[in-house]
Amino acid sequence: MTRVVLAEDGTLLREGLVGLLARLGFDVVAAVGDGDALVAAVNEHHPDLVVTDIRMPPGYSDEGLRAARRLREQYGALPVVALSQYVERSYAEDLLDSADGRAVGYLLKDRVVDIAEFGQALRTVVRGGTVVDPEVVRQLMRRSDPLDRLTEREREVLALLAEGHSNLAIAERLVVTEAAVNKHVGNILAKLDLPPSADSNRRVLAVLTWLRRRS
After folding, report:
1. Which residues are bridge partners to 27 per DSSP?
2. What secondary structure does DSSP assign to the chain, as a single string?
3. Which residue segment(s) compose the domain that 59 sits in?
4. Does the pLDDT at position 118 exceed 80?
5. Does one domain contain both 70 and 165?
6. Is the model more confident about 141 or about 109?
């Protein structure tokens, strides 16, 4: 039998999942309620699969996700299925980026309506596959453009950068101070995930991002 460590802070839901997993033929070797307990249980039992909620005590933010990523770093592509109440873009991307996206699943709790399909999804992840709820895929695709992070003013500044204007020239065109333009440029580079580097011109990379979107 596939050995499972389950992490879910809600007592009723946790007990319900234990019973459901048993019905599906899984052996729940530990059922815990927070991220630290999840790490401890995996270290003790070395399961074949982790099923975890994302938001758990004490902060109810991303404790389950951070624990899962830590465990996947420690044990390689440890199969993990995250159950979430909502589509959390950054959480989904973080989890799917770990271990090259192998042996991982991201499912929405309210959309798990077919028990047999749920069991099949878990087995797919155990075999090294990737299972993502279609609604998660749609939202990730709809929001994946990095330019969506920019404000309207930052888009104006980036468009003028793409036309080859200096910060001073942009300031004159937009009737703002050069310091304001410098701040906008800094925000653009940060939002496009372009950290300082001696090997590349970040302004050029930002312009390329803009041009790819326009082409």
Report:
1. 3
2. -EEEEEE-S-HHHHHHHHHHHHHTTEEEEEEESSHHHHHHHHHHH--SEEEEESS-TTTTSSHHHHHHHHHHHHHSS--EEEEESS--HHHHHHHHHGGGG-SEEEEEGGG---HHHHHHHHHHHHTT-EEE-HHHHHHHHHT--GGGGS-HHHHHHHHHHHTT--HHHHHHHHTS-HHHHHHHHHHHHHHTT----TTS-HHHHHHHHHHHHH-
3. 2-142
4. yes
5. no
6. 109
**Residue 134 and residue 49 share a domain:** yes
Domain identity same for 97 and 171: no
Q: Is the pLDDT of residue 18 over 80?
A: yes
Question: Could you tell me the two tokens for 74?
Answer: 């420690």
The count of structural domains within the chain is 2
User: Could you tell me if 68 and 127 lie in one domain?
Assistant: yes
**CATH number of the domain bearing residue 59:** 3.40.50.2300
Average pLDDT over residues 132-149: 71
Q: How far apart are CA 200 and CA 195, in angstroms?
A: 10
* pTM for this prediction: 0.66
**Same domain? 29 vs 131:** yes
Q: Do the strands 104-108 and 80-84 form a parallel or antiparallel pair, or are they unpaired? A: parallel
